[in-house]
């Protein structure tokens, strides 16, 4: 009996009654930590990009992909904050002199940077 393409590629069949069913497995997941940015992108994929989500899940690359997105988003977030701090002249001296104003301005910068990261990385 000739081998099927599936068997030539290393696959095997399992007999169930009168039928031969191919034994399909999903590759093992790579355990990588996924932070808040990766989790938010995962929620976005599940809700709006179902085909991409399913493809990543079936080829076993979801963990690596989300960890990479998380890393990129965190680095971009930190760069944005530093750039905005310099542009607005927020320094450690301001923090020492007027902590309440410094806190308010930093919260504003973080909120702006968060929205930019959402638009540029998470929701694309």
What does this structure look like?
68% of the residues lie in helices and 6% in strands. With 124 residues, it is mainly alpha-helical. It has one domain. Strands 1-2 form a two-stranded antiparallel ribbon. The mean pLDDT is 90.
List keywords for this structure.
6 helices; mainly alpha; two-stranded antiparallel sheet; TnpV protein; 124 residues
- How much of the sequence lies in strands comes to 5-15%
Mean pLDDT: 90
Coarse shape: rod-shaped
Which structural class do you get from the secondary structure elements?
Answer: mainly alpha
* Quantity of strands, as a count: 2
C-alpha Rg (nearest Å): 24 Å
Helical proportion, percent range: 55-70%
> Could you give the order of strands across the largest sheet?
1-2
Largest sheet: 2 strands, antiparallel
Protein name: TnpV protein
Organism: Hominisplanchenecus murintestinalis
Set out the fold topology.
Elements: H1 5-8, E1 13-16, E2 19-22, H2 36-48, H3 50-59, H4 62-88, H5 92-97, H6 99-122
Antiparallel strand pairs: 1-2
Helix pairs in contact: 2-3, 2-4, 4-6
Short structural summary:
This is TnpV protein. The chain is mostly helical and 124 residues long.
């Amino acid at each position: 009996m000739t081998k099927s393409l599936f068997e030539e590629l290393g696959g095997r069949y399992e007999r169930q009654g009168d039928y031969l069913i191919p034994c399909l497995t999903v590759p093992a997941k790579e355990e990588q930590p996924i932070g808040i940015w990766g989790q938010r992108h995962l929620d976005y994929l599940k809700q709006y990009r179902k085909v991409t989500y399913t493809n990543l899940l079936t080829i076993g690359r979801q963990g690596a992909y989300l960890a990479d997105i998380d890393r990129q988003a965190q680095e971009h977030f930190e760069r944005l904050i530093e750039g905005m701090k310099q542009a607005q002249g927020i320094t450690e001296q301001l923090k020492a002199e007027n902590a309440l104003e410094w806190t308010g301005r930093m919260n504003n910068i973080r909120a702006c940077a968060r929205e930019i990261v959402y638009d540029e990385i998470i929701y694309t």
